[in-house]
Amino acid sequence: MLTHLGAIFCNNILNIFSTGIYQPGDESKLSKRPKAILTGVDIYTKNGIRGFYAGLVPMLWRDVLGSGLYIWSYQYIRFNYHGYLDLNPGAFETLMAGGMAGVLSWIPVVPLDTIKSRIQADDVKNPIYKGMIHCGTQLLKEGGYINFYKGFQMIALRSFIVNATMFYAYECMLDCWNYIRIKPR
After folding, report:
1. Per-residue pLDDT reduced to its tens digit, 74-112
2. Where does the signal sequence lie (predicted)?
3. Which among 39, 48, 63, 77 is least buried, having the fewest CB atoms inside 10 angstroms?
């Protein structure tokens, strides 16, 4: 159990620092211009340096919460898929655990991602939303809880397939590495 908590802790610390690095690029996804440099210049011209970091707080919450749940659920499901501790899970358990971990990690994250996207699309100089909580309450008033989960079915389907494949490839690479490293010469 300590190993899983250690992995979650390390992953979350890395996310806190990496969010500040890749956040500016996330803003450019909402722009209508195809060129990243022109988009960056446009964001800077309209909003200054602050424009690159619009939505940083919800993005930080999204990444830390999602990553912690992602790693923990993968480890837990992989080793306990059949209802008991299995120290040698097979390919099926790995694929199912990876897919389910991907879907589970998005459940609490999608509302935060929706809030982040709304804040990023908002005008920095004359904002509609006063912050993360104000944006969330406005979304709730506009359409209820369903407003936070629009498009979740496609996110879940994509997430299951991508994460099942990714974790299976990861475990195969670990097996190969261990075989090469332990192989007698």
Report:
1. 999 999 988 888 888 899 999 999 999 999 999 988 998
2. none
3. 48
Tell me the two tokens of residue 80: 């306990």
Count the neighbouring beta carbons within 10 Å of the beta carbon of residue 87. 5
Instruction: Write the CA distances from 116 to 48, 54, 88, 97, 144, integer angstroms.
Output: 19, 8, 40, 28, 17
Domain ranges of the chain: 2-182
Give the residue from 21, 33, 40, 30 showing the smallest Cα distance to 119: 30
- Look-up of token digits 């340096």: 49
Find tokens 């008991």 and name the residue.
Answer: 84
Per-position b or e across 120-131, b if 16+ CB within 10 A of its CB: beeebeeeebee
Integer Cα distance of 145 and 110 in angstroms: 11
Burial pattern 22-40, b for ≥16 Cβ within 10 A else e, equals: ebbebbbeebeeeeeeebb
Give the C-alpha distances (Å, rounded to integers) separating 36 from 40, 43, 59, 120.
Answer: 6, 10, 20, 16
The Cα–Cα gap between 179 and 28 comes to 43
Q: Which tens digits make up the pLDDT trace of 148-181?
A: 998 899 999 999 999 999 999 999 998 888 888 8
Distance CA 31, CA 127 (A): 17
> pTM here?
0.65
